Amino acid sequence: MSQKTLPLGHGELLELAYQLPTPFHLYDEKAIVEQARSLKKLFSWAPGFCNYYAVKACPNPAILKLLAAEGFGADCSSLPELILSKASGISGSKIMFTSNDTPSEEFKAAYEMGAIINLDDITHIQALEDALGTVPETICFRYNPGPDRTGNAIIGNPVEAKYGVTSSQIVDCYKIMKGKGVKHFGLHTMVASNELDGSYIVETARMLFELCVRIKQEAGVTIEFIDMGGGIGIPYRLDQEPMDLAQVSKGMQALYESIIVPAGLAPLQIVFECGRVITGPYGYLVTKVLHVTEKYKQYVGVDASMANLMRPALYGSYHHITVLGKAHEEADHLYDVTGSLCENNDKFAIDRKLPKVDKGDVLVIHDTGAHGHSMGFNYNAKLRSAEYLLRRDGSVVMIRRAQTYDDYVATLRFDGALVEV
Ligand SMILES: Cc1ncc(COP(=O)(O)O)c(C=O)c1O
């Protein structure tokens, strides 16, 4: 059973919601920093431990800078993410470029920034060389175990996944790169998403450790770091438990001692690319109730929409909802909580039991600190919301303003400014 907490009291949040235009995302700096420190501490046994925060989870320089100050790097998968990371003070080998279907100019930009390039396919060796006219000193490959792993329910079966190098290709990848003069090698995988079972992560470490041994034996290449990807889940639902990361760390350490050390492969650096577990629980979408309506069901219509948080509509994901100021009232009303898009799946909750909701109430949608604002879009010309950071000293700062109509039309060419091609 997990608890859903708020970063401020109900009264303070209500005040904020009436002071600032809603909807908005609010991130809790103290909790994010504590989480980053706790992960680092748990893995202090692991040589060179680093989490390359998945920029896609919350691409905001204020968040990236906070994490960089804790020694985190950035996991990027596009050119804008690379540029944003650099602008946030993360550069060189603190950037992992884990992309797929990659344009050559993005390989080039990553190389020029000194980022670690993580190749998604054996054919990308040639593509990279064509793009750079050379090969980098360090290279990493993303491994897809195919039928050797089941994947988890969310990320799906590895055999069906578009990502990564297969089991029969992986050794050749390293042989080829060694032949081309690459000096340092990494090995990456990502076979889980929003996973709560820690043993799954430990088994992934086992798979990579054993593969390091195989690569050494068959290609004569020493893997210097493994990248476990992201995918550590968070308890979105009240009846879920957070992953026991202390157990995961212990399990991985035992495997390190029994596989890596005897094979003479120590020290092997261990890194992750976690996003969700770092910021997810510490972000909140604050939204006002515009209408409460009764049709064949009861609806609570709020001023946020899928533009602000897509997960419920996209994946049917559960996000807990608190009605501010009504914590002690019985949750005895059944509502669909909806946004205003012309899409019937624009719902934050279906058949959710809440206290009686009234127009003007403020709802807090929990666990929006990762893959929340960042997944937003502009369908129906819905403008995306602002983001605020609750700082450790209790002050609140805007770290992204809300989109305006002018932002929305900035790329359009109106009559008189049409561009002939
Ligand atoms: C390559 C890669 N690394 C890391 C992540 C971060 O995953 P999470 O935020 O679930 O930890 C993702 C998520 O999509 C990803 O695709």
Shape: globular
Bound molecules: pyridoxal-5'-phosphate
CATH architecture of the largest domain: Alpha-Beta Barrel
Helix/strand class:
alpha/beta
How would you portray this structure in words?
By secondary structure, the protein is of the alpha/beta class. The chain has 2 domains: 29-278, TIM Barrel (Alpha-Beta Barrel); 281-404, Lyase, Ornithine Decarboxylase, Chain A, domain 1. Helices cover 29% and strands 22% of the residues. The chain has 12 helices and 17 strands. It has helices at residues 10-19, 29-42, 61-69, 79-87, 104-112, 124-132, 170-179, 198-219, 245-260, 276-279, 311-315, 405-409; strands at 24-28, 50-54, 73-76, 95-98, 116-119, 138-143, 184-189, 223-227, 269-272, 283-294, 298-302, 321-323, 333-338, 347-354, 362-365, 386-390, 396-400. The strands form 2 sheets. Strands 1, 10, 11, 12, 13, 14, 15, 16 and 17 form a 9-stranded mixed sheet that branches. It has an 8-stranded parallel beta barrel with strand order 2-3-4-5-6-7-8-9, surrounded by 5 helices. A hairpin with a 3-residue loop joins β10 and β11 (298-302). α8 packs parallel to α9. The longest helix is centred in the middle third of the chain and has 22 residues, at 198-219. The protein is globular, with a radius of gyration of 23 Å. The model has no long low-confidence stretch (mean pLDDT 96). It binds pyridoxal-5'-phosphate (PLP). The site of pyridoxal-5'-phosphate (PLP) has 16 residues, from loops. Pyridoxal-5'-phosphate binds at residues 54, 57, 75, 98, 190, 193-194, 229-232, 273-276, 370.
